[in-house]
Design goal:
The structure is a homodimer.
Chain A: E1 5-6, E2 10-16, E3 20-25, H1 30-36, E4 55-60, H2 68-73, H3 76-81, E5 83-85, E6 95-98, E7 125-131, H4 143-154, E8 161-162, H5 164-176, E9 180-186, E10 189-194, E11 201-207, E12 211-218, E13 224-231, H6 241-250, H7 254-276, E14 284-291, H8 293-299, E15 320-323, H9 324-327, E16 336-339, H10 349-357, H11 359-362, E17 366-371, E18 376-382, E19 385-391, E20 412-418, E21 423-427, E22 435-436, H12 438-450, E23 468-471, E24 474-480, E25 491-494, H13 495-519, E26 528-532, H14 534-538, H15 541-546, E27 558-562, H16 564-574, H17 576-588, E28 590-591, H18 600-608
Parallel strand pairs in A: 2-6, 8-10, 11-14, 14-16, 17-26, 19-28, 20-22, 26-27
Antiparallel strand pairs in A: 1-2, 2-3, 4-5, 4-6, 7-9, 9-10, 11-12, 12-13, 15-16, 17-18, 18-19, 20-21, 23-24, 24-25
Helix pairs in contact in A: 6-7, 10-16, 10-17, 13-18, 16-17
């Protein structure tokens, strides 16, 4: 036997296709073991057996008996093939475990491109080149004082104070640079000094629940030098915000652990981005971070309990200027991080950033601006008046709670067309299909409706299409069958999947409808719909209208703007006017709590129906 | 045998009178062992065998052979009795070691009393009581934003920002206090919130090389609630500043270790002071710290290498406002520490604080203001014009480099009178004599001069007094002989001690003389001499004049002001006017480097002579 049993309480585990041999501790689930080993297995529900995301295959060895969650998650054939939920399975012997790519949170498609907006350069940090005189017995000037004097000589009032971290290195630095340096001042405070050739950089970060997008900007030109997207490693603590908040509240160090996960990812991203331009993160003189309110609070170690309880108030709404070291960011010694304002507990700084970036689109007329995600934020702007709401759309559009749903990674089915007798699909990178991602799921719903496979109520009709079948009393539509899948399980859309999608869609559509009613505006009066975010960039507009996710308007009234939150963060990074304007937008936005809207229930029920709506179908206000 | 040999490389050591049994590692000196065990044995020279301060007695067991430093430090009888220098002795068997109280740095007399100066209360932190409304679905206000709004309602513009550490607890705090609290604002920033009954406290600290004095102040009344003095634990890394700077530069973590030693002592002091008034250090809303430039730099982790090299410039001279957390002080969450300005590399913020506290004394006329210590800072104020200098007086007046010198602790001889045939002395607390402390040493020098035992050149004259004797070719004056000492070694003043005292005195007196010459003022024109500091409070003025340490002036022109640096720190704590005035004093003070003064050498040589001087005795400018 090639595996080794180490002591009584540890079992060797061999991980495929990672090619690692490690040890699993006694009493440790496969999920806990993989997390301990740094393997980022997806866990939406935080290890409770509910999300069925942490699928692995036991190739050799034994583990604990199947739990009821696993019996629900897998078919008989899958169980026989060795499939397990990593959170439910506890090894009882040395094991060989297959970790499928769709269960990993690496190498996902992350959108970092956004709108391009022209703005006058007006950065928070100014650069001054100074040539100092070395002190002598006849000219006794303390190092920091001499630097401030020189700065005030160039720009009176600029050198009022100097960050203590700058003073902590100033003496050896000035001597090694032969008393010539660049001084970086923010307002009247010196936040960094560096050799004269140093280019001041800025970092804009869009901290999403799922993805983190980072932009490295040259503060002397405003140009974006590099952009990068990574997955938010907090995902391994739970996919949705509420699970993560529970995690933060559940144990004394819970919040700290989540904070460090996100923070380390941002610091690593800063390092990676700087490497690409041959710089060091100490050249980053300012950073701007946006994120939804929960991400914002978790990153800043703010209290989150009140976010999860009615009336769901943030600890703070206004914009913040914090020393980067107080956030834990490893950038220039005295640098600040600017945090855009939140609107409410579930409409955060990322939505404000999106509004900032898309202002040209909504400054006139009646505009809906939305960012579709696990939580969908929607604002209706009526000639400058902003009303915002938050829709609990859930992760169905990101591939979760969907039987064969996956994230938008290699091999994910992103487009689906249902033809008379069959089905056609495209996968990301043209790879063999591993499951269906959000845009594919949305396509499927529309195509199944148009093909008569489901009705407006969402019922899947047996016999309506050759690909509809009944499997263990469950009706499903087969996208990739056993023959086409090359030995892997088939990929299907089940009746239950359709129900999940109906709930997700209804959450968003009812939010839009309530905003319209609240503002006394009809669907047809909408001049423009701005759709931000990764998912929003990839969806097919016609299909989205067909299922009633989006209002029934001519296609030219829609604008897909990509990661506009990232663009907004960049604007606030390079322009102090834009930054203060973001503060105004945050203040102006009026939040309404959908669940307390009087007609919420009937509107939601109506929005569960699939397909476009007549104005008369909605309950009147 | 009652001691145990543990392994090949460790020896049990029994410590008396501490009553502890511990282990000494192989290759570890007794000094290193005691430091590791947390026993604060004095070490002036940092373990080099030079200062003879770390005397211990080996009662049982064996140690390494005597070093040449030990042969110099002890008499034959002392060596036979088992006396060792802890830094030179390495145990080679289980041992029983006596650690005499005079070698410990605990329970020393530390002066915390200072001048009392009346000042209008104008504290940096203001207190506001606010009653907030709990947020509801119809009144969605974020916690921090609601607090700032309420504050701005009371005092417009006060609530512009709120420290991130305050926001980190605000939500559970406001809820547990039922939305009623006191808000503490510094300028336009909220730095803390607390239950409404909380009294805002302030902490003033005088961080001396040897002693740390702390004052807990009620910021709502300006009243000093408690004061406390402790020894600076950095002493165990070396008594004088230069040894500590070498220590900080010598190893990568050296500076950090010294910083932590002082910081921990200040944090512990804050905790102890607060306990005495039933408060918690989180109620300390502001702190002010003063210290000499080296202490200042070591506490703030500033670079010190350039302080030790000509032209001896500080990293920073100006006053600093730093978040207490960036210094490491554990006080209110968003509190600041204000650091008074330095004047130069060897005239620090403590001297500025002393000048601030004594301004009433020097605002008119010609005044000498000095703080005598290991380093003696002197300012000459000529109708408001301040010229400052630093004198390397060394630790002789603190009892070091003096054969039987001790610190001012219980049993130290603090007063000496030499009579025709004998000697009389007083000890601290009337305890049996253990050695001579600074004021006693100064008395002895004057009394020996007046009794004709030493001449003006400092030579001890054999046969001049029954107590003069020759011991192993060394001339000495016996203060406490073998019969009087009750079995302990005799206490003597040696010829070498007189030489050490001459150098210390000359350093100070030549500094004063150079300042006078620099300002074109004669000794007799001095209107007042202000003497600050612990040593200066205890010295006998007549004796100090008699040896020429102080100018030869009528006694009513002298004023001993105790710890005026501490008083100055308190003033800067409770009065923003005084604080900004301290900044002006720091700016106004002109530093002169004594060693570069043209007539330094001949003035110093003249000042080595003991006794008052005629104006004509000094080299002309």
């Amino acid at each position: 036997m090639e595996t080794v049993e180490k002591g009584r309480n540890e079992f060797e585990v061999e991980l495929e296709p990672l090619g690692r041999r490690e040890f699993c501790l006694a009493g440790e689930s496969i999920l806990d073991c993989l997390h301990r080993l740094g393997v980022d297995l997806t866990s939406v529900c935080g290890g409770k057996g509910k999300c069925h995301a942490c699928k692995v295959k036991l190739l050799k060895g034994k583990a604990s008996l199947f739990s009821s969650a696993e019996l629900e998650a897998f078919t008989r054939e899958q169980i026989e093939a060795g499939w397990r939920l990593a959170c439910q399975a506890f090894p009882t012997s040395p094991c060989k475990i297959f970790v499928p790519p769709e269960s990993m949170i690496v190498s996902q498609r992350v959108q970092v491109e956004g709108l391009s907006v022209e703005v006058a350069l007006e950065p928070p940090v100014k650069t001054y080149r100074v040539d100092l005189t070395a002190p002598s017995l006849s000219q006794l000037v303390a190092d920091a004082d001499g630097l401030l004097d020189a700065l005030n000589g160039k720009d009176p009032g600029t050198g009022r104070s100097i960050d203590i971290n700058v003073i902590r290195n100033i003496s050896p630095q000035l001597r090694s640079w032969d008393w010539r340096c660049s001084v970086f001042a923010r307002g009247d405070e010196v936040i960094s000094i560096a050799p004269q050739s140093t280019c001041p950089l800025g970092l804009a970060v869009d901290l999403g629940s799922t993805k983190i997008a980072g932009y490295l900007v040259d503060l002397s030109t405003g140009r974006t030098l590099k952009a990068k997207g990574v997955m938010n490693p907090q995902i391994s603590y739970g996919e949705d915000i509420i699970t993560r908040i529970s995690q933060a509240m559940g144990s004394p160090g819970g919040g700290k652990e989540l904070q460090e996960a996100a923070l380390n990812a941002i610091n690593q991203m800063a390092l990676d981005l700087c490497k690409e331009v041959d710089a060091h993160p100490t050249s980053i003189m300012e950073s701007v971070i946006v994120g939804n309110t929960a991400m914002h609070h978790l990153l800043l170690c703010l209290p989150v309990e009140q976010l999860a309880l009615s009336p769901y108030v943030p600890a703070v709404r206004k914009a913040l200027d914090i020393k980067a070291r107080d956030v834990g960011l490893q950038i220039a010694p005295g640098a600040y991080t600017h945090i855009l304002p939140n609107v409410a507990g579930f409409v955060g700084a990322d939505h404000v950033a999106m509004l900032l970036a898309t202002e040209a689109e909504w400054s006139k007329g009646i505009v809906i601006a939305m960012d579709i995600g696990t939580n969908t934020e929607v604002s209706l702007v009526n000639n400058g008046q902003i009303v915002s709401a938050s829709c609990a759309s859930g992760p169905a559009f990101e591939g979760y709670h969907i039987k064969d749903g996956v994230r938008a990674s290699k091999g994910a089915i992103e487009k689906i067309r249902v033809t008379r007798g069959g089905v056609q699909y495209d996968t990301i990178d043209g790879a063999p299909p591993i499951g269906i991602c959000g845009s594919g799921i949305l396509d499927a719903m529309a195509q199944l409706l148009l093909a008569g496979v489901i009705d407006r109520g969402g019922r899947m009709i047996e016999g309506s299409h050759p690909r509809v079948r009944t499997n263990q009393n469950r009706t499903e539509f087969v996208v990739v069958d056993e023959k086409e899948s090359g030995g892997r399980p088939p990929i299907v859309i089940t009746q239950k999947d359709i129900r999940e999608l109906q709930l997700a869609k209804a959450a968003i559509r009812s939010g839009v409808q309530i905003l319209l009613q609240h503002s006394g505006v009809s669907e047809q009066q909408i001049d423009k719909v701005v759709i931000a975010g990764a998912f929003g960039s990839y969806i097919d507009l016609s299909n989205s209208i067909a299922i009633g996710l989006l209002p029934s308007l001519p296609l030219d009234r829609f604008k897909q703007v990509g990661n506009a939150a990232g663009t907004g963060a960049k604007l606030a990074l390079v322009s102090m006017s834009k930054r203060s304007h973001a503060g105004e937008i945050g203040n102006r936005a009026n939040y309404i709590e959908l669940a307390t809207y009087p007609k919420f229930q009937p509107i939601f029920i109506q929005a569960c129906n699939i397909g476009p709506y007549q104005a008369t179908q909605w309950p009147s206000p």
